[in-house]
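**Entry details**
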Amino acid sequence: MVYVGIPKGQADQEEEVLKTIQDGDSDELTIKRFTESREKPGALWHIYAAKDTEKIREFLKKVAEEQGQENPVDHDPIHDQSWYLDRSLRKRLHQEYGVQGWAIVQFLGDVVFIPAGAPHQARTRDTVHNLYSCIKVAEDFVSPEHVKHCFWLTQEFRYLSHTHTNHEDKLQVKNVIYHAVKDAVGILRANESSLSRP
């Protein structure tokens, strides 16, 4: 979070942000960062364990059906990013499926790492969905420990409709694997003579 702009003279907005943070199930230390330390919050995240993805997907489809919405085969309620789990839906998800996530308020200067495949959402105000006006810098990366999971996500994207924003392979996992192996082989060949000495 590289910038958080707080309008001057809008005390009511501060109360609204505090309420959003509290309703977001944030812990007491996080609330104190805002109320006592006067740090600038930019976004409220809810992050779930990757192992709970299928339960969350099933829950979102169930809620959509209850609301009379369709669940097309070539769409995915998680990848569509069309749902926000508010407090009542998060509570219901926990009660019915045993799934509970982590609430993280991202303050100015904070970095949030989201593990590969972990469903997540950011809560914001108004249309922009930020607690205050803010600028975030995001970077996707593939760590060696999560290549398998990233590859699995890429396979999930293939089943989305061709017009879906997540249909393309944004992570380029196959290219990452190819270049990692190519570089490793190049280093081994360059040091072949020193490796063969007794």
Notes: Confidence is low (pLDDT under 50) at residues 124-129. The radius of gyration is 21 Å.
